[in-house]
Amino acid sequence: MTRTATPVDQLTHEEAAEELARLAAEIAEHDRRYHTEDAPTISDAAYDALRRRNLAIEQRFPELIRADSPSRAVGGAVSEKFEKVRHRVPMLSLDNAFSDDDVRDFVERIRRFLRLPADAELGITAEPKIDGLSMSLRYEDGRLVKAATRGDGQTGEDVTANAKTIADIPNVLSGDFPAVLEVRGEVYMTQQAFLALNERQAAEGKQTYVNPRNTAAGSIRQLDASVTASRPLHFFAYAWGEVSAMPADTQMAMVEAFRSYGFPVNPLMQRFTDPEGLLAHYRLIEETRASLGYDIDGVVYKVDDLALQERLGFVSRSPRWAIAHKFPAEKATTILNGIDIQVGRTGALTPVARLQPVTVGGVVVTNATLHNAEEIERLGVMIGDTVTVQRAGDVIPQILGVDLAKRPDDARAFEFPSVCPCELKTPVVREATAAGVEGVVRRCTGEFACPFQRIEHLRHFVSRRAFDIEGLGEKQIEFFFNDEDLPVKSPADIFTLEKRDAENLRKLKDKEGFGAVSAAKLFTAIEERRTISLERMIYGLGIRHVGETTARTLARGYGSWTAFHDAALAIANGDDQAREEMDALEDIGGAVIDAIARYFGEAHNRALVEKLAAQVSVIDAEQVASDSPVAGKTIVFTGALERMSRDEAKAMAEKLGAKAAGSVSSKTDLVVAGPGAGSKLKKAAELGIEVIDEAAWFERIGRQGV
Q1: Quick one: what percent of the chain has pLDDT higher than 90?
Q2: Which residues pair with residue 202 across a beta bridge?
Q3: CA gap 356, 384 in Å, rounded
Q4: Which class for 190: exposed (0-12), middle (13-18), buried (19 or more C-beta within 10 A)?
Q5: Whether residues 466 and 368 fall in one domain
Q6: Range with the largest mean pLDDT of 186-190, 367-371, 581-585
Q7: Which residues have a Cβ under 8 Å from the Cβ of 479 and sit 6 or more positions away?
Q8: pTM above 0.85, yes or no
């Protein structure tokens, strides 16, 4: 091992080639002893040092990378499919900021929430937002045991074998690491590597790829890990999930700990104490963006102090203590070839522009939303026009304007249809607003009789955020909707597919696009979703105005399917008390309640729901801390709290398993009142509800304050 003493930057070309050959053989032998004989002859740290040296030499001499390189070694056997991994700590998304004022507001919101004095320092980190694929890496006793994609934030895909082929990801940690450590970060591909890959693909007559981000994501999701191993992927570590013992108490120090364990971390990460410092760093990163060598789409800001992060907590699917400052949208010009009408799940008719294909921000765009008839009129756009298209991140492209100087003589105006494009040709109406003014949205009046709406409801039902049935995507839904042997017209029909298939002479396995294996996998996937969480059940129904966050609020508010179902029916039947109780839930307002009343008030919908409920088992909503003294209770905070902000109080209650309501009702268990409490305090007295002050609240939950 004399050659290992020579610094990598001093190796000659010949010496590097010799050492790479020796390292490949030596590491392969250690892998055989560890995996096959279960009798390793070197320590984990020594083994990882060999791999890191191999990687360092390859990075200096990329032309010498061998076919049998350890950095390309497949970490495990090829899987039939990816197993699902439940994240022990959810991988949440970030809210976005698009302007300097958004960033200043973000900092000010944090100060208000924490009630920080004007002279109190608030440290916030800033780092590039890598445009790649989020990954969670679980280490036990320093060895990589599980790698998973972000997925829906709660559940991801097991890609352990693939992750082990990425040279930047250590199989064994260095240094003084915790016994259990989940490191999170981004898998990405450099622009140079992406272009080289496309050149190889083209030379071999194979399909080329669109952009580095999608190529990196597709490379990770290969069922054959050897394909992943052949792709030049990289990794930056910047966050964590479950940790048995925190090695640091700040964001900066945690990332530095990752570096000491052997992970690459972004060198542009810095700490600032005011929004102007953050914005200056944002502009610096934006200016140097083109020279980084990898794609970024913004800058991420995070509160540095982990204790403050804990106090700030989360709202919906995002942390209060972090935000992504996105770069401005990229634009391009192209020709508008036509306008199609899409009918959504709620019957809304949306005009979609068909464009001459154009690349915007590295993505080929062929369609863009025109929102509604009023937007077409506002833009003054005609078919045949030259238009400016904008795209920002994953946002649907949109048309910004028209170049009238380039309008052709044969350009023609678009007439918005007065009837639905479905075969029923049902009338299209404009809904009135609460003030009685005609709205801009035009809707098909066919409801569930309209095939477009029925199909869209089914697609929504099986979508990732709802029932998430693997192998039952948009194309499969359309197939089953139109199939004569196994028609699926309502969600309940999905759960009777296997039984009906067994009774049919013509089996699913014999139909084009299926086979014995794929049919069996589909039936298994459906069966796995026969037991579903309450929030997914509510969201999957497709009730207008009930998105993921609202579904989660309703699930936590009612706790069980029976309670929610009965309350919805009562509201549909005009029960004022049931309506008042739903209105008391935080962030549930009149529009949501009216939508639930309309949904459950329609006979077809009620029949659909009852048929579905007979086929599935709904899991009660989980309580965050069922052993706390306020778990399961409905609490209202009112008045001017002195030791914490109202938002922080609500967040604290929810973490303890309570339900924070916005108004007092007969279902309220406790009112915490500060100075200046008014009508809510009066109503609590009328209803005989217990009222305590802020000090008694902290005593009740066993804390000294914040």
Answers
A1: 44
A2: none
A3: 10
A4: middle
A5: no
A6: 186-190
A7: 513
A8: no
Sheet holding 234-243, edge to edge: 143-149, 133-140, 180-188, 234-243
In a domain, 624, yes or no: no
Predicted confidence band of residue 646 (pLDDT cuts 50, 70, 90) = confident
According to the model, what pLDDT value does residue 145 have? 96
Q: Are residues 409 and 358 in the same domain?
A: yes
Does residue 524 sit in the same domain as residue 537?
Answer: no
Query: Torsion angle of alpha carbons 129, 132, 133, 136, nearest 10°?
Result: -50
Sign of the C-alpha dihedral computed for residues 20, 24, 29 and 33 taken in this order:
positive
The residues annotated as belonging to the active site are: 129
Burial status of residue 199 (CB atoms within 10 A of its CB: 0-12, 13-18, 19 or more): exposed
Q: Which two tokens stand for residue 507?
A: 């089996």
To the nearest 10°, report the CA torsion of 689, 695, 701, 704. Answer: 180
629 — alpha (psi -120 to 50), left (phi > 0) or beta? Answer: alpha
Tokens coding 473: 């995507």
Name the residue among 681, 587, 582 with its Cα closest to residue 639: 681
Would you say 315 and 321 are in contact if contact means Cβ atoms under 8 Å apart? no
Contacts of 466 (CB under 8 A, 6+ apart): 460, 536, 539, 540
Range of the domain at 677: 634-701
Rounded-to-integer distance, Cα 32 and Cα 379, Å: 66
Q: How far apart are CA 635 and CA 669, in angstroms?
A: 6
